[in-house]
Amino acid sequence: MTDIKKTPAGSKTAGQSIMLDRRQLLLGAAGAAIGTATLGVASGLGIRPARAADRTEISFASASFFGKEGLGDLVKAFNESQSRITVKFIELPPPSSSTEVYQGLVQQLARRNGTPDVFSQDVIWIAGFASAGWALPLDEYFPKDKRADYFPGTVAACTYGGKLTALPWFVDSGMFYYRKDLVEKHGGKVPETWADMAAMAAEAQKAGDAKFGYLWQGKQAEVLVCDAVEIIASNGGSILSADGKSSVIGDDAAVAAIQFLYDTINKTKISPQNVLSWDEEPSRQPFTSGEAMFMRNWSYVYPIAQDPKASHVVDKVAVAPLPHFAGGKSSACLGGYQLGVNANSKKREAAIEFLTWMSSPETQTRLALNFGLAPSRPAIFQDAKLKAEQPFMASLQNVFTGATPRPITPQYAKVTLALQSSISKALVSGNVKAELQAAAAQINKIVG
């Protein structure tokens, strides 16, 4: 759903003498396997393998994620994959308690004592953690050729001040849900532009095939910012300037985008007035009950839509990239958790090795299959096992390719509150340009 996080660092470890060349180990996705093989050769030469007491111990703090297994099982798998490092798992609340997770990380990182050595973070916390000096820059460990293995939007969200301060882990994004049967009846082609979507939705409503044409989230909350990021970017606009030092939400592209959302309620009438008080679940329920044709939401909706106990549209729902304005391109607000290293870690080499393992193709595939968390590496979406066991997830590569981060600024907590208030006022009053220009002025004072 809507989430964010960041990173820190350390110094050299005692176990360094038994490690492979750092660059070869850390930049190779199979670093842990190589290390295990090396220890096996060493044993054959009469060199004693490292005992548990000889291992370098580091800590990993993360929100709790569960599926067929838990994160503790993943940490255990790393510990058992090699004999140099032991990771202690510090379990934080689940991401549904995002504020508590954030506060827990801030309290630990602010101590600057090196604990935790590695952490996971909601994507919107990255700039703040980097600005505070808590996140270790990772550029020397993951040069540009390695970053090309990830979705560009995720790398952009992990970058602050021109430096990579987090490593992509797993992603989510906004996506366009549609009724296959109704699209087939009213044109046969999934609309790619907002204008075509609005026309098709209105037609389905007029024919009595759908009570609601398009559902989205207009509640004055973080999800409203997500919806706004998507539709503004799909018109070639933005909330902040490229350097992050001023706001451009009052510009024509952004104004036209938010005006379209206002019009879905008041002009085309494809959205009910109630969307202004809805976040994810209230907007999901009418869709899975069969009352709507189109909806913007997150990936969690799909399995609910396919559950006969919770849905009246089983086998009638599909997902596509969100529409765009003429001349623009589809954009999806980026969510998910990314990985960071504590800038004050005293065991930096071990921390980087664990970070590399956690973001490797093998581990990301395991997260996809056992946790239902989408990979941040496009290549994994072609995995035969993923296609067989998680066909819906495997179909999302083109959706995630358009993932766009929310405003990247250490002042995000203040910026999002200003956005939520101003966009909400614009959608209620219809004074879109005036409200967005007021928002730009307020945000300029925050980030300037």
TrEMBL record:
Belongs to the bacterial solute-binding protein 1 family. Keywords: Periplasm, Signal, Sugar transport, Transport. GO terms for biological process: maltodextrin transmembrane transport; maltose transport. The keyword Signal applies. The lineage of its organism: Bacteria, Pseudomonadati, Pseudomonadota, Alphaproteobacteria, Hyphomicrobiales. GO terms for cellular component: ATP-binding cassette (ABC) transporter complex, substrate-binding subunit-containing. This is Multiple sugar transport system substrate-binding protein. The keyword Signal applies. SUPFAM superfamilies: Periplasmic binding protein-like II (SSF53850). InterPro entries: SBP, TAT_signal. It holds the Pfam family SBP_bac_1. GO terms for molecular function: maltose binding.
